[in-house]
Amino acid sequence: MDFNRRTAMATGLGAMLAGSGGTARATAPGTVTVQGESAVRTNIPVVRDRRATGGRYPGLRTTEKPPARTGWYATYTVRAPRAGVYTLTAVATAPVETPHTEAVASYLLLSVNEGPFTEIARSQPHWYESRAVWGDLSELDLGTVELRNDTNTFTFRVTEPTVLEDTTAYVLALDHFTLRHQEGHPALRELSVPRHREGEPRFPGAADEQHELARRHEADIPLWMTECGAFQKARPGTDLTPEQEIAQARYVVRSMVEGLAAGNDRQFWFAGPPLHDDGIYFGLLDRDFCPLPAYSAFAALTSLLGAARFTGPAPLLPDGVRGFVFDSGRGELVTVVWAERPVRLDRCGSGAVYDIMGRRLPAGQPVTASRDPLYLTSPAPPEVSPASPAASAAPPAASPTSPAASPALPAASPASPAASPPPRVASPGALPRPRARLSPAEHIVLAQRFSARNAAPGKEDGDAPPPHGYRLGRRSRLTVDVYNFGETARPVTVAARPVGGGWTVRAEQETRIRVPAGGRVGVNFGLLASSSVVRRTDRRLAFRATLDDRSEVPASVALIRLR
Predict the structure, then answer these.
(1) What is the DSSP letter of 404?
(2) Residue of 218, 212, 265, 266 lying closest to 544 (CA atoms)
(3) Is the pTM of this model over 0.70?
(4) By CB distance 3.0 to 4.6 Å, which of 242, 406, 407, 421 could disulfide with 199?
């Protein structure tokens, strides 16, 4: 939608408030409560429930599309006790999951005094931290609004469905809403953007453990780090502390650099928008959609690294300094360096130097590596320059660790002549592969599907100790679902790899199937565990598949064990 969420939050969502004619009740001076079922006009059905404040409430849950002109709506009128600024809360279903329920509702639009409709868009932490009231309903903080000392009208509207467990539907439950006058509150005119300061904590990287996991499962495929983030505790209703903010900014740069240097083909940060989950805060924006320092650091990283083709660790660094060299794809090399303690860099090459936020540092001044990463740029040698014909035909002739493959970098000072130990990086054969269009076989995805009763205990705990495998009996069954994400139907032949350890896998049907474009077909298999199978010991169960031209589909791997 064409909607500036940050401005809307600061201005109280466009003064989105009104009340209900004849059924509003004053519960305290300057406070009005309006029952949800008392709309003057609505096309949302009213349902009965003893738990509701008035025994009834408007309850919307339908897959039917709303009328194009009005949407699903409820219109209210109320006379405010006085003009001024009010807080607006509602006991209703939240549009995101909360700690006490996974039920979600549609996002609301609101029109005040016949004005244009505005989306009630708040960040995930605002909804997630809502207090449970009854059933799936929570007490929702809808911000502050400005009312006139007269009859005010407003209309709630639902025009978009939400995603439920088994379908998409238009959903809303509204018990009541409450308006509370704010004495001495200024009119809602100014937009205020909080300033986020810096602090000093640090975080480790996670690339090594992910690649060890890939080696353990023999995953000889391009690796995507789909969720790399910093787990930082935050109290409900609060943002990160200044110390946490700067730790996040440093970690987003270092984790991205280390992941790409370790050989990850793609590196994704978790998460971009505000996100509060079980006491842990993620996101590069605060709860009012204002950018955190990590947002600016991430923007600088993507701008300066460009194509981000890792060429090797930086050579000849002083003790305690880590450095990684990347080809930006713009005819330059970019070296990212940092250190746990300040270390002066005697030479920084012939190019520009940028700080963690992308600010260019003055030329000719001393440069110090610290916990805030720096970017050192220099012209790329011919063998790695994108303008070089040789570069487009073959990889650089120099080894990834040779000075010839890197820009002129800081040499060790006389006080510390020894270079720092080389960081753990990908071997030349494990570097990210050239990005090309997916082949027909790579448009096929295999997924093993077991009965829910076979699920491993503690599956929701990513740090649970082994064994991790599906719990199977002496005789078990599973289905290998074959998905075709291509635009052409494909014949696919599925086969199981030997499991060993006393396990046998047998097909229960024809294993050559035809999968329609955009479709899914399941192939059933049986598993037999002989008397020699050791209980509570994980074994790898892998399935492979081929197309008729013998091209191989990426394998599906799971862990299994005998109960």
Answers:
(1) G
(2) 218
(3) no
(4) 242
Q: Phi, psi (5° rounding) for residue 253?
A: -70, -50
Alpha-carbon span 410 to 347, nearest angstrom: 4
> Could you give the 3-state DSSP secondary structure of residue 326?
strand
Select the more confidently predicted residue: 155 or 235.
Answer: 155
Say if residue 409 is exposed, middle or buried (CB neighbours under 10 Å; 0-12, 13-18, 19+): buried
Token pair in block for residue 501: 């350890």
Domains along the chain? Answer: 5-181 (2.60.120.260), 207-305 (no CATH), 309-430 (no CATH), 441-562 (2.60.40.10)
Q: DSSP label at 108? A: P
Of the candidates 258, 247, 249, 172, which has an alpha carbon nearest to the alpha carbon of residue 207?
258
Rg (CA), the chain: 30
Question: For 489-535, what is each residue's pLDDT tens digit?
Answer: 999 999 999 999 999 999 999 999 999 999 999 999 999 999 999 99
Output helix, strand, coil percentages for the chain, rounded to the nearest 5.
Answer: 15, 35, 50
Q: Quick one: how far is CA 322 from the chain centroid?
A: 28
- Encoding tokens for residue 109? 């639009």
Q: Which two tokens stand for residue 385?
A: 């320059």
More confident residue, 58 or 237: 58
User: ω before 271 within 30° of 0 (cis)?
Assistant: yes
CA angle 448, 454, 456 (to 5 degrees): 95
Q: In this predicted model, what pLDDT tens digit does every residue of 380-399 receive, in sequence order?
A: 887 644 444 334 333 333 33
3-state SS, one letter per residue, for 279-325 = CEEECCECCCCCECHHHHHHHHHHHHHCCCEEEEECCCCCCCEEEEE
pLDDT-based confidence at residue 340 (cuts at 50, 70, 90)? very high
Mean pLDDT of the chain: 81
